[in-house]
């Protein structure tokens, strides 16, 4: 299927691994020129080296919690590739977890700063050039947790509910300029983040890694009827579709990639 975005320019945050990296891969296969960004000290350079065989790739380090870093990320991408037509926000952390009464302000603020305000800062940089050209695609990674909160992850849940609201508001504000804003909501995808969660669970329960996954699905995610973790490329496929001309009438919407984890019909 021709996605109609060959030659476009995309910037992806949280792109050094997992869903961000796989989104970059699929965009490159569609003929998009891609900039990757993530925090320093990770595997960003390795990700860029792995993807370079597919097309034009640049890597720029930066911290989405720092306004100066965000401005510099966009400056460097514009200088090296041009102004992005597409922005995919995959940067995020699980953040502060545990009993609500035991999570302090610092834990809440850090989680919200990365997951929600990071997206706000990046969108603020993305939108003006898109409006000027009359074409833009923004995809923000949300989560099943945004509409089905879990009591030990409330800071994360709130940050992702904020992402849904941000995306809907931006879609209303800038859809008239053909800047379309949507979300993708994964559930329990095989990524370095969930690997760490399952290693911790395995240690706490005295079981194997695979047994930790099996018990998590049974006890914590009974709605995931496929009974497995999702694959990063399965989420990336939905994100790239929303970036394409094939999704030119989709705005302010969300696609769940969750194996049925969310029990209700509410979006």
How would you describe this structure in keywords?
267 residues, alpha/beta, Rossmann fold, 7-stranded parallel beta sheet, 7 strands
Question: Would you write up a description of this structure?
Answer:
The protein is an alpha/beta fold and 267 residues long. The chain folds into 2 domains: 9-187 and 230-257, NAD(P)-binding Rossmann-like Domain (Rossmann fold), CATH 3.40.50.720; 190-229. The protein has 8 helices and 7 strands. The chain has helices at residues 18-29, 44-51, 67-80, 105-133, 154-174, 192-205, 209-220, 232-243; strands at 9-13, 33-38, 57-61, 86-89, 136-141, 179-186, 254-257. The protein has a 7-stranded parallel β-sheet with strand order 3-2-1-4-5-6-7, sandwiched between helices. β5, α5 and β6 (179-186) form a beta-alpha-beta unit. The longest helix has 29 residues, at 105-133. The model has no long low-confidence stretch (mean pLDDT 96).
